[in-house]
Design brief:
With 266 residues, this protein is of the alpha/beta class. The chain folds into two domains: 40-124 and 222-259, 3-Layer(aba) Sandwich (D-Maltodextrin-Binding Protein, domain 2), CATH 3.40.190.10; 125-220, D-Maltodextrin-Binding Protein, domain 2, CATH 3.40.190.10. Helices cover 42% and strands 24% of the residues. The strands form two sheets. Strands 1, 5, 6, 7, 8, 9, 10, 11, 12 and 13 form a ten-stranded mixed beta sheet that branches. Strands 2-3-4 form a three-stranded antiparallel beta sheet. A hairpin with a 3-residue loop joins strand 2 (48-49) and strand 3. The longest helix has 35 residues, at 2-36. The chain starts with a helix and ends in a 7-residue tail after the last helix. Pfam families: SBP_bac_3.
Length: 266
C-alpha cells in the first residue's frame, strides 16, 4: 500500500513539474516575441518643418519625411504614429522611450552620434542664409552687425558658430521653429535667418518674391533617422526597409512628389 501511495505521489510531481515548465517556456516565448515584434512605432516630429513634416490647411500632418516613414512602416509591417514634440527636447523624448524614432529633417552630427543611433544618411542638406528679397545683403560677410535668427537647438546654430562671421553679428535670436523665424524676418525684426536649405527653398516657392538666399552656404550636412541606443534590432529593420524602398523606386517617387526630382541618397 505504501509503495502504491509513493508511486502516485511521484507521478503527480512529474505532472506538476511538466506543467510549470510548459507555462514558463510559453511565457518566455511571449516576452521575446513582444520585445522584437512591435506593432506600432512612434515617430517624433517638428510639425512646423515644411516640406519634411508639417500641417496642411486641413491640419493634417504631411510632408516628405511623413510619406517616407509611412512607406517604411508598410515595408516593416508596423503602424506608424506621428507625435509632434518640442524639437529642443527631441533626444530626451527618444531616450525616455516616449518616441521610438526622431525623423524629421534630423541632421547627423558627431555630438548627436554620442546620444543616438543613426540610419545611413538619406538626404543631402545645407545650412543657408535667408534674407528679405529686397535686402542688399549678398555674401556671408554682410552678416556683420546684423540681427540673426535661427531655430533653437538646431544644426543652424552649429553651422553659424563654426564660421568666423559669428563673432561679428550683432545679435542672435533663437526661435521655437523656423516659421516664427521667417515671420520675424518678413516683418524686419531680424535681418537674416540661418535655416535648412530644403526648408528655405520650400518657403520661397510658397511665398515668391518674399525671400532670397545668399549664394554662400554655411555648412553642408546630411539627414538621418535617430534610434534609441540599445535598439539595434529596430535600426536594422528600419534600414532594411529604407534600402528596399531605394531599390523598388518608392523613395524616388516620394522625393519627386515633394522636390520635383529624386534627391534621396542611395
Amino acid at each position: 500500500m505504501k509503495r502504491i501511495v509513493t508511486l502516485c505521489m511521484m507521478l503527480m510531481a512529474v505532472i506538476v513539474l511538466a506543467a510549470c515548465g510548459t507555462s514558463k517556456e510559453s511565457s518566455t516565448e511571449k516576452d521575446q516575441s513582444s520585445s522584437t515584434d512591435k506593432e506600432k512605432i512612434i515617430v517624433g516630429i517638428d510639425d512646423k518643418f515644411a516640406p519634411m513634416g508639417f500641417r496642411d490647411e486641413k491640419n493634417d500632418i504631411v510632408g516628405f519625411d511623413i510619406d517616407l516613414a509611412r512607406a517604411a512602416g508598410e515595408h516593416m509591417g508596423v503602424e506608424v504614429e506621428f507625435q509632434p514634440i518640442d524639437w529642443k527636447t527631441k533626444e530626451a523624448e527618444l531616450l525616455s522611450g516616449r518616441i521610438d524614432l526622431i525623423w524629421n529633417g534630423y541632421t547627423i552630427t558627431d555630438e548627436r552620434k554620442e546620444k543616438v543611433l543613426f540610419t545611413k544618411p538619406y538626404l543631402e542638406n545645407a545650412q543657408v542664409v535667408a534674407t528679405k528679397a529686397d535686402s542688399k545683403m549678398a555674401q556671408l560677410s554682410d552678416l556683420a552687425g546684423k540681427e540673426i535668427g535661427l531655430q533653437s537647438l538646431s544644426s543652424a546654430a552649429d553651422a553659424l558658430n563654426s564660421n568666423p562671421i559669428h563673432k561679428e553679428v550683432k545679435n542672435i535670436t533663437e526661435f521655437a521653429d523656423n516659421v516664427l523665424a521667417l515671420s520675424d524676418l518678413k516683418t524686419g525684426r531680424v535681418d537674416a535667418v540661418i535655416i535648412d536649405a530644403v526648408v528655405a527653398e520650400y518657403y520661397m516657392t510658397q511665398q515668391p518674391d518674399t525671400f532670397k538666399l545668399l549664394e554662400e552656404s554655411l555648412a553642408p550636412e546630411q539627414y538621418g533617422i535617430g534610434v534609441k541606443p540599445g535598439n539595434e534590432a529596430l535600426l536594422e529593420k528600419l534600414q532594411a526597409a529604407l534600402d528596399k524602398m531605394n531599390e523598388d523606386g518608392t523613395a524616388a517617387d516620394i522625393s519627386t512628389k515633394w522636390f520635383g526630382e529624386d534627391k534621396v541618397l542611395k
